[in-house]
Design brief:
Elements lengths: L11 H4 L1 H22 L16 H18 L18
Length: 90
């Protein structure tokens, strides 16, 4: 057997520059999405906890919210706030 000398073949990336660019973009996109999924995001939450002191106070707050929603007329009546309760503190 004789060994034939053939010119060295170009790498896949040089032979397919468009697909190389697409592949590179997809790799960068996956790295970016992975970073977005696993790195913490800082959120400046300005809400303050204000728990109700009693069951009756909580029900009164919900009633006030529901009345305000109904009075605004901007919310479909089916979508108004709903409270599921046992009727007393549990």
């Amino acid at each position: 057997m004789t060994k034939t000398d053939s010119p060295p073949q170009k790498s896949w990336f040089k032979r397919h520059p468009v697909w190389s660019g697409v592949l590179g973009f997809l790799v960068l996109l996956l790295v970016f999405l992975a970073l977005m999924a696993f790195l913490p995001v800082k959120v400046s939450d300005t809400s303050v906890s204000n728990p109700a002191g009693s069951h009756d106070e909580a029900i009164a707050r919900i009633d006030a919210i529901r009345e305000a929603e109904q009075a605004s007329g901007e919310i479909n009546p089916v979508c108004l706030s709903t409270v599921m309760t046992h009727g007393e503190k549990t």
